[in-house]
Design brief:
Blueprint (H helix, E strand, L loop, with lengths): L7 H10 L8 E8 L5 H6 L7 E8 L1 H11 L5 E8 L2 E4 L3 E9 L2 H19 E7 L1
Antiparallel strand pairs: 1-5, 2-4, 2-6, 3-5
Helix pairs in contact: 3-4
Length: 131
């Protein structure tokens, strides 16, 4: 399956040309990647000896659009762009890119963390394939 990924460099060029750019003092990006370590091991310390070899990844378009709109109301956030993969992915494949532009470091970091958490916990479906 061919996954057309965006260019973060191009995203930044476009963000800096956006009318909101004069309010922005920081851009942060997040690049989620399929990792070999299972979620339960990384988050809960449960090591059952298995390794992830791939993932089925999907999401709800309407929920994502609503989350992006909500994130635009976060304090100090002026620019947001999100791309999510879909389908069968392998270890090392990109699952998401998120770009957030905000006025100051604290607002930008908080905005990125809050949006990515919402995406990961409420919007995407990740099914790990284990060896």
């Amino acid at each position: 399956m061919s996954i057309t990924k965006p260019s973060i460099d191009q995203w930044l060029i476009e963000a800096k040309a956006d009318p909101s750019a004069s309010n922005i003092g920081m851009y942060l990006t997040h690049n989620g990647v399929v990792r070999q370590s299972p979620r339960a091991q990384v988050r809960e310390g449960i090591d059952d000896g298995t390794e992830v070899v791939g993932m089925t990844f999907d999401y709800d378009d309407a929920l994502l659009a609503a989350a992006v709109e909500e994130a635009k109301s976060y304090e100090g956030i002026f620019y947001i762009r999100v791309w999510l993969a879909r389908g069968e992915l392998n270890v090392g494949d990109d699952i998401m890119y998120v770009l957030v532009g905000g006025d100051i470091r604290d607002h930008t970091v908080d905005g990125l963390l809050k949006l990515v958490k919402k995406i990961k916990t409420e919007i995407v479906v990740e099914i790990e394939k284990k060896a």
